């Protein structure tokens, strides 16, 4: 099966989404000399509604719906996503065909006045839009004030620079991709801030059954990253479904074994259960489910029951 003469990538128009689309475009171009690879930029609901927390307006799916419609209507062949933003249950008719090698998966501390979380004085205002980061901060630094922070990366940094926050927490990957690594004051370790499922990895979404395009994107799949992200997503799916849940899930391949760590917390950080499993990378999703069971046995259910969506 040969690649079509023109391959269209649907992408959001934020700088980060465009960087990711360009990255995939360039890789596909060099692998398919006979194809022209182009990007179709579009704005999504998630990009437009910036004044309300993501958890309130409908969650992750908001950022990818328009891209899926474009694929369904044949205006685009594929979409590139930050795996962190892809809903745990893929919408009917779409598949994740490739997961590429991970950028730094950790959270970053960004501030103009402070070198790290431990330097912040009581009452300092820290911005984050993720329930996971909020729960971690409230548990470890109850003296800080957590304030919601929405918008794309540039918007978030502008709000920090305008003095609305003393510090913000962002994914290191986004800053690195956009050449703003110098804004990172400290990278938080997995022990300090266990990353979100999929953080730092890119996924390629296709219409289910598009065998020609699946063959085109297959070389972009990084098997180790794919196993890790599948384990993380299985954990998240088993515990949170498509709800917004303060949950971390992070896997690496360690000595040939997949090592998955995870936690579930209440948003106020008062309750938290965490655990880890190790096993064969090929058992990725089973390992995710195993850790979910372990966390349930420790009381994850009661924490989840207290969240809005359960
Ligand atoms: N929620 C938005 C989002 N989606 C992916 C990234 C960063 C890049 C990545 O995780 O691959 C970010 C920004 C952030 O959390 O700071």
Q: What's the end-to-end separation, in Å?
A: 46 Å
Q: What share of the residues lie within helices?
A: 25-40%
Helix and strand sequence = EHEHHHEEEEHEHEHEEHHEEEHH
Number of strands: 13
If you compute it from the alpha carbons, what radius of gyration comes out, rounded to the nearest whole angstrom?
A: 19 Å
Domain count: the total is 3
Which regions have little confidence, pLDDT < 50, spanning 5+ residues?
none
- Could you please say which CATH topology of the largest domain applies here? D-Maltodextrin-Binding Protein, domain 2
Biggest beta sheet attributes: 5 strands, mixed
Number of helices: 11
What percentage of amino acids are in beta strands?
15-25%
Q: What is the assigned CATH homologous superfamily of the largest domain?
A: Periplasmic binding protein-like II
Main CATH class of the largest domain = Alpha Beta
Domain Porphobilinogen deaminase N-terminal: 7-213
Keywords: Porphyrin biosynthesis, Transferase
Subunit structure: Monomer.
Enzyme class: transferase
What does the model show?
- It contains eleven helices and 13 strands.
- The chain starts with 5 loop residues before the first strand and ends in a 5-residue tail after the last helix.
- 33% of the residues lie in helices and 25% in strands.
- The chain has helices at 15-31, 45-48, 54-57, 65-72, 131-140, 153-161, 172-177, 211-217, 223-240, 284-297, 300-305; strands at residues 6-12, 36-42, 78-82, 94-99, 107-110, 125-128, 145-148, 167-171, 184-187, 202-207, 247-254, 257-265, 272-279.
- The model has no long low-confidence stretch (mean pLDDT 93).
- β11 (247-254) and β12 (257-265) form a beta hairpin.
- It folds into three domains: 6-101 and 201-221, Periplasmic binding protein-like II (D-Maltodextrin-Binding Protein, domain 2, 3-Layer(aba) Sandwich), CATH 3.40.190.10; 107-187, Periplasmic binding protein-like II (D-Maltodextrin-Binding Protein, domain 2); 232-305, Porphobilinogen deaminase, C-terminal domain (Double Stranded RNA Binding Domain).
- α9 packs parallel to α10 (284-297).
- Strands 2-1-3-10-4 form a five-stranded mixed β-sheet, with helices on both faces.
- The chain has 310 residues and is an alpha/beta fold.
- The structure holds ligand PBG.
- The site of ligand PBG has 9 residues, from β8 and α7.
């Amino acid at each position: 099966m040969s690649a079509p003469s023109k391959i269209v990538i649907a992408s959001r128009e934020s700088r980060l989404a465009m960087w990711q689309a360009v990255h995939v475009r360039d890789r596909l171009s060099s692998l398919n000399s006979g194809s022209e690879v182009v990007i179709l930029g579009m704005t999504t609901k998630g990009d437009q509604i910036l004044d309300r927390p993501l958890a309130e307006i409908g969650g992750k799916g908001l950022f990818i719906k328009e891209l899926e419609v474009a694929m369904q209507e044949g205006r685009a062949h594929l979409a590139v996503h930050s795996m962190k933003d892809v809903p745990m249950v893929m919408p009917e008719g779409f598949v994740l065909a490739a997961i590429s090698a991970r950028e730094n998966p950790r959270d970053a501390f960004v501030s103009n006045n402070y070198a790290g979380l431990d330097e912040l004085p009581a009452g300092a205002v820290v911005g984050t839009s993720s329930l996971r980061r909020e729960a971690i901060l409230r548990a470890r630094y109850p003296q800080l004030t957590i304030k919601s922070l929405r918008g794309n990366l540039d918007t978030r940094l502008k709000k920090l620079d305008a003095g609305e926050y003393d510090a913000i927490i962002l994914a290191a990957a986004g800053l690195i991709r956009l050449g703003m690594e110098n804004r990172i004051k400290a990278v938080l370790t997995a022990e300090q801030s266990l990353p979100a499922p999929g953080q730092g990895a890119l996924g390629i979404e296709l219409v289910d059954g598009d065998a020609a395009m699946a063959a085109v994107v297959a070389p972009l799949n990084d098997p180790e990253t794919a196993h890790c992200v599948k384990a993380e997503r299985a954990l998240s799916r088993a515990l949170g479904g498509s709800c917004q849940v303060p949950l971390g899930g992070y896997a690496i391949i360690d000595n040939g074994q997949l090592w998955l760590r995870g936690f579930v917390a209440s948003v106020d950080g008062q309750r938290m259960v965490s655990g880890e499993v190790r096993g064969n990378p090929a058992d990725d999703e089973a390992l995710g489910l195993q850790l979910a069971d372990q966390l349930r046995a420790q009381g994850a259910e009661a924490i989840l029951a207290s969240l809005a969506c359960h």
